[in-house]
UniProtKB/TrEMBL annotation:
Keywords: Hydrolase, Metal-binding, Zinc. It comes from Exophiala xenobiotica. GO terms for molecular function: hydrolase activity; metal ion binding. SMART domains: Lactamase_B. This is Metallo-beta-lactamase domain-containing protein. SUPFAM superfamilies: Metallo-hydrolase/oxidoreductase (SSF56281). InterPro entries: MBL_superfamily_lactonases (IPR051013), Metallo-B-lactamas (IPR001279), RibonucZ/Hydroxyglut_hydro (IPR036866). The keyword Aminoacyl-tRNA synthetase does not apply.
């Protein structure tokens, strides 16, 4: 989750050029979308936004349930947090839990799927992890015994060895080290084609309703998705392309901070690539009127928000809980 600047990659981007959006393929296909409560954790603003105060606030950890209306195929996008700390690696428990204080949701992501969709857990066949960090990805087969999980290209190379072969690794060896995990997981193979302003996108259901998009910057294998609703509106599930709405809106920059050992670090592994990805998301939003949902942002749930599209995807109980928490945070 935290990337040492010694590992940051320099990349040539189009950051100084205006993004060009290709026309989107014509389709009437669409998905039904639900935003699920994946829990929350505490973030320090000074490690998120450059120049921000040393102030903590609670952030959500959204997961998504997606159903293609035409075929009936369903998938889970990201998995949220577990109340069982043993589902996280020793690295995460020892290095991140103390500062971030993760809190699992009142009802697990699996429970929410069952209750909102009358779906048996063994009926869910597909999980897509936006990336391999602990707050999005963990062993899933206890809940979804028949599911196959998919990662973005380059994930396996980056995340091996996991903690079973290297106890100091942050990556989960139950997924990346042993045949039992690797047999349940794959990297997406495409085909990858241009889509709007994005260079590498995959038409996941084959009918234009849901596009999985390579989104460089946060870590190798990072993915976002574009979901088309019945209204024709597109929703970008933007994951960890940035961790604060003000960065996305151009009101702040990625923070660079100092780790206890003296090394400089950032939440984005490749800052130039991350900025390029944000520019492409903004180009898509501007060209097609898309809604953008970041994995750890709930500002669209603030009282008085006019974003009825995103709000409509959240259950009433989750909406009330987060609006209450946000109201408390605004007063502090």
């Amino acid at each position: 989750m935290v990337n040492s600047l010694s590992n940051l990659i320099s990349s040539d981007t189009e950051s100084g050029l205006e993004m060009q959006c290709l026309p989107l393929p014509h389709t009437s296909a669409h998905v039904d979308l639900q935003i699920l409560d994946g829990g929350s954790f505490t973030a320090n603003e000074s490690k998120v936004v450059e120049g921000a105060k040393d102030k903590e606030h609670c952030v959500p950890d959204w997961a998504f349930f997606v159903k293609d209306h035409e075929s009936g195929r369903q998938l889970l996008w990201d998995y949220g947090l577990s109340e069982d700390k043993e589902e996280f690696t020793p690295f995460v428990q020892q290095n991140l839990f103390g500062e971030l204080r993760p809190c699992s949701p009142p009802k697990s992501v699996a429970q929410q799927i069952v209750e909102r969709n009358a779906l048996a857990l063994d009926e869910l066949g597909t999980i897509i992890f936006s990336h391999a960090h602990w707050d999005h990805c963990r062993p899933f087969w206890k809940d979804f015994s028949r599911a196959t999980a998919f990662f973005g290209p380059g994930t396996f190379e980056h995340c091996q060895p996991g903690h079973l072969k290297d106890p100091s690794a942050q990556w989960d060896g139950r997924i990346f080290d042993v045949p039992a995990g690797l047999e349940k997981c794959q990297e997406l193979q495409g085909p990858w084609v241009p889509f709007g302003p994005f260079e590498h996108a995959m038409d996941f259901f084959g009918n234009g309703s849901f596009w999985v998009i390579q989104a460089p910057g946060h870590m190798p294998g990072n993915l976002i998705a574009a979901a088309r609703l019945s209204t024709g509106i597109w929703v970008i599930m933007a994951g960890d392309c940035c961790h604060a709405r003000q960065i996305y809106e151009g009101l702040g920059d990625f923070a660079v901070f100092t780790l206890p050992g003296g090394h400089k670090a950032c939440l984005q592994a490749d800052i130039p690539a991350a900025k390029d990805t944000l520019k492409r998301i903004k180009a898509f939003e501007g060209a097609y009127g898309a809604k953008v949902c970041l994995a750890h942002d709930a500002t669209w749930m603030l009282h008085g928000s006019t974003d009825e599209t995103l709000i409509s995807f959240v259950s009433e109980a989750v909406r009330e809980a987060f609006q209450s928490a946000l109201s408390i945070g605004e007063k502090q």
